[in-house]
Amino acid sequence: MDYARFFSDDVPSFLRSPVREIFRKVDLASIYSFAGGYPDASTFPLGEMEGLARTVVEKYGARALQYGGTQGVPELREAISRWYAPWLYGRPGGIPLENIQITTSSQQGIDVCARVFLNPGDVVLTTYPAYLGALQSFRAYRAVILPLSNATGRLSLSELRSLRSLRPLPAELGPSPCPCPGVDTSSRGSLPCSGATKLIYVVPDFCNPSGVTMTLEERQALVEFARREDLLIVEDSPYRELRYSGSDIPTIYSLAPERTLHLGSFSKIFAPGFRLGWIIAEPELLEQIFVCKQALDLCPPVFDQYLAAEFLGSGALDRNLKHSISLYRDKRDYMISLLEKYMPASVTWTHPDGGLFLWLTLPENVDTVAMYDSALAAGVAYVAGSFFFLDGSHHNTMRLNFSYLARERMEAGVKLLSEEIRRVLPSSQTIEIQRIP
């Protein structure tokens, strides 16, 4: 039976995640996976869970198993208000509860922002390479996505400051093909840029996928630009707490609370299986998100919210975060040392101050999508960098995750990946140079 006529006009705009395709087909335990953004399972507070669950049952009783408010249970919002204020503002204090909306994952936060603010043809500005989950959400609502940076994720301050009105934009921007294998883009055509420029989307701290952190000057210039052009900023911040070196930089929200929606997540600091996140923004913005979310899931998972509230309130999160930071700092440093040991001299990579990812750049003649099947067959997985560019460009890049794979397996995995890279490089590009310790 041909089901094509039943699908909505939005379906051709859906992007397929190559990471999810890997997980659907491959047992991660059987390969060396640097692909997904999985946390290290040793950071999950298993030792705390039985006590937390008992506390939730004794303290909240049947309320923990009942439906809850769409905005989230007040206990969790209060805990976030107290705990997150220093992370958000850089100083102690509280965040008004009316400014906090709990979401069923920060991915839902991105999606609900797209759903509430974007019409087909509206423009979203972002830094490239861009988080694939955000590209999926924005394209699902048929938005036009334009880069606001160079390919390294760095903003051009001079261009940003000199750039004036974005309107009018060209009526046709041409096709934005999906580079994911198996997706038919022949019927997609071009996206008409018929709407307004409304949103800037950024991951300013240890960006997924590049690991780049926006400087204070870049954040200030972005805010100045957003105010001049009257744009909203979606500040996606799932990694901010995971800093291993350097100093904290003020959030974009702290610089422009009136036009910023700040997205946070428990996935990297508690456990991703709970699917809990939050949005901090002006109540007038959250009101429409509140209404929209009623049609999505009625309310976030209540029992999970109470667990998270107790996890924050008991001090367990602070203790667990210290362990996570120490672990990931060691794994980041070890991964970089392995790259220095095994990679050809023609390969370069980023040195992130935090987060979970490194960004590799290979010689121009290498196509990391083309070499992927043979690498996976050899037993090592990564994500080709072109998936983070809507036009499929930058085929010579890749994203590597350093948090998931056990430390004792990392060397064999990096060595195997380097062998696959050497296999596709011309011999002139595999000559080593003396590396300075």
According to CATH, what is the topology of the largest domain?
A: Aspartate Aminotransferase, domain 2
Q: What is the arithmetic mean of pLDDT?
A: 88
How many domains is the backbone divided into? Answer: 2
Number of strands: 13
Helical run tally: 13
Give the strand order of the largest sheet, numbering strands 1, 2, ... along the chain.
Answer: 2-8-7-6-5-3-4
The first-level CATH class of the largest domain is given as: Alpha Beta
Instruction: Supply the CATH architecture of the largest domain.
Output: 3-Layer(aba) Sandwich
The main sheet comes to: 7 strands, mixed
Q: Please state the overall shape, judged from the principal axes of the Cα atoms.
A: globular
Strand portion: 5-15%
In short, what is this structure?
The protein is 37% helix and 12% strand.
Describe this protein's structure.
The chain has 437 residues and is an alpha/beta fold. It folds into 2 domains: 4-44 and 318-423, Aspartate Aminotransferase, domain 1 (Alpha-Beta Complex), CATH 3.90.1150; 65-314, Type I PLP-dependent aspartate aminotransferase-like (Major domain) (Aspartate Aminotransferase, domain 2), CATH 3.40.640.10. It is 37% helix and 12% strand. The chain is built from 13 helices and 13 strands. The strands form 3 sheets. The chain has a 7-stranded mixed β-sheet with strand order 2-8-7-6-5-3-4, sandwiched between helices. α5 links the parallel β3 and β4 (144-147). α2 (46-60) packs across α10 (302-313), α3 packs across α10 and α4 packs parallel to α5. The longest helix is centred in the C-terminal third of the chain and has 27 residues, at 316-342. The radius of gyration is 22 Å and the shape is globular. Residues 167-192 and 433-437 have low confidence and may be disordered.
